Amino acid sequence: MMLVGTYQIHSKEAIYKVLEAGLASGYRLIDTASGYRNEEHIGAALRDLLPKFGLKREDLFITSKIGPSSAGNHASVVSCCQASLQHLGTTYLDLLLIHWPGLHKIAGEDPRNKAGRLVTWSALQDLYRSGVTRAIGVSNYETRHCREILDSGIVPHVNQVRAASVHRHCRVLPKSTNTDHIAANIAARDLVLSKEQFSLINSIQTRYKYAWDPKNIY
Questions:
Q1: Edge-to-edge order in the sheet of strand 136-139
Q2: Which residues cross the membrane (predicted)?
């Protein structure tokens, strides 16, 4: 299933344009997070767009995430989830993730991060049992982070990481706010690159990690 990523898309107009183009092109998975600060705009757009395209809520797969500022406290996690549901205009999420293994404004080596992860995972299990999310998981977790919670009740249904299992380091379909690119991305499912094109890509020498590194969170 192709997804519509909404990171760094903040305005109501931009969200509407992206979702309209995505749904028209066949996208049915929407990825957002409390920290993206756009869930309310997504909910407003879907109220208009679902009937426009003859779709129902159950035709979509909506993922949200608990951010570091809400993690580490059971009540805050529950409140964050409830806010996401209200903003998105839905009674349930298809998937709820812990966005990051660290806590807000806590140094990576601080042991409070581990304690916070356990509390947050316990809260997600309660939310799952209550039925407000149909699956729970983690995001950006290292293997050692996952091992901490394997014996804590429910095993994570998902560990969301960026990976390319066939062609390493080739980010083939980047997120886009351009309606033409959104349509072209989903149409590229049958695109096959030649060996020469792969060789050209692999010859790029620049290697730089632009995102935070979870290896530094203990």
A1: 3-5, 29-31, 61-66, 95-98, 136-139, 158-160
A2: none
Q: Looking at residue 140, what DSSP letter applies? A: S
CA–CA gap between residue 96 and residue 62 (Å, rounded): 9
**Mind spelling out the 3-state secondary structure of 170-200?**
CCCCCCCCCHHHHHHHHHHHHCCCCHHHHHH
Query: Under CATH, what is the fold of the domain 3-165+173-216?
Result: TIM Barrel (3.20.20)
110 with 153: CB under 8 angstroms?
no
Distance from C-alpha of 173 to C-alpha of 180, rounded to nearest angstrom: 13
Report the pLDDT averaged over residues 21-28: 95
What residues act catalytically? 36
pLDDT over 60 at 200, yes or no: yes
pTM of the model: 0.86
